[in-house]
Amino acid sequence: MDNNSSILRMEQQITQLQDDISDMAVQNSDLNDKMVTIINMLKKNFRQESRRIKKNKNPDEPKQPMTSYFCFCSSIRESIKTENPSCSMPQHSKIMGAKWKTLTDTEKKPFIMAASEDKERYNTEILLFNEKLNTM
Questions:
Q1: CATH number at residue 95
Q2: Based on the domain organization, do 44 and 80 belong to the same domain?
Q3: Does 76 share its domain with 129?
Q4: pTM of this prediction?
Q5: Which of 14, 44, 53, 111 keeps 20 to 30 A from 82, CA to CA?
Q6: Among residues 80, 22, 14, 94, which one has the least CA distance to residue 46?
Q7: Are residues 42 and 76 located together in one domain of the fold?
Q8: Residues with Cβ < 8 Å from 132, sequence gap 6 or more?
């Protein structure tokens, strides 16, 4: 709610400044240029603020299921880190992605099975969660 009220205030400020600019534009063009710059800055802040608004997530809601790729990554992440200790996380991700691409379908099968099991877990947990919400 606090984010929404701050965005509403920012919208009101933008509208007020736009009204002020239109009044002052006739009087002084230098002032108009400065006000346009300020409004553009406010609009930029407004866009950034509106992107930051996060959906209020219920902490009891079950986690989304892992994909087969993420099951693969979680199984090899530690070995990648020990083999390449000087690499950064993005570099580790590139290495894992390259290894995933080289796997055959039969090599991917255990990870696909793990992902489907995780999806089943999620489906049962979300059903229970939704039932719990509906009874409240």
A1: 1.10.30
A2: no
A3: yes
A4: 0.58
A5: 111
A6: 14
A7: no
A8: 60
State how far the Cα of 94 lies from the Cα of 40, in Å rounded to an integer: 38
CB–CB of 113/102 below 8 Å?
no
Task: Provide the 3-class DSSP secondary structure of residue 26.
Answer: coil
- For residue 121, give Cα distances in angstroms to 62, 63, 74, 115: 9, 10, 18, 10
Distance CA 98, CA 118 (A): 24
Q: What single-letter DSSP state applies at residue 59?
A: T
In the structure encoding, which two tokens stand for residue 33, read together? 């240029």
Q: Which helix (H) or strand (E) holds 11?
A: helix 2-24
pLDDT for the residue numbered 79: 94
Domain count for the chain = 2
- 80 shares a domain with 40: no
Yes or no: say if 49 and 10 are a contact pair by the CB < 8 Å rule. yes
- In angstroms, what CA-CA distances link 108 with 22, 69, 78, 83, 105? 63, 9, 19, 22, 5
Q: Structural domain of residue 89, as residue ranges?
A: 68-135
Is 41 part of any domain? yes
Based on the domain organization, do 76 and 131 belong to the same domain?
Answer: yes
Question: How far is 48 from 89, CA to CA, in rounded Å?
Answer: 26
